[in-house]
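Example for tutorial group B:
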């Protein structure tokens, strides 16, 4: 896969849309976005240069825990 094809696959939406969805979902959307982008990049990368799945899992857990902790303060 060449760089132009990779860039086309990675660019799925505008930055503003990502920004607003991240704010509305308290960061959870960004974790799913990172997961999707990581899958695309790891598919195109060779050998040991792949992004760690443990890092992506940590981002998932961190975003959900942060959202759960933040929700009570929004409605207090």
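The residue assignment follows.
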């Amino acid at each position: 896969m060449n760089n132009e094809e990779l860039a086309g696959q990675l660019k799925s939406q505008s930055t503003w849309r990502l920004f607003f969805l991240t704010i509305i979902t308290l960061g959870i959307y960004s974790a799913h976005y990172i997961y999707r982008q990581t899958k695309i990049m790891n598919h195109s990368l060779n050998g040991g240069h792949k992004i760690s799945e443990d890092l992506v899992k940590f981002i998932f857990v961190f975003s959900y825990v942060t959202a759960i902790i933040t929700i009570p303060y929004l409605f207090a």
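The mean pLDDT is 87. Compare this with the pattern of hydrophobic and polar residues in the output above.
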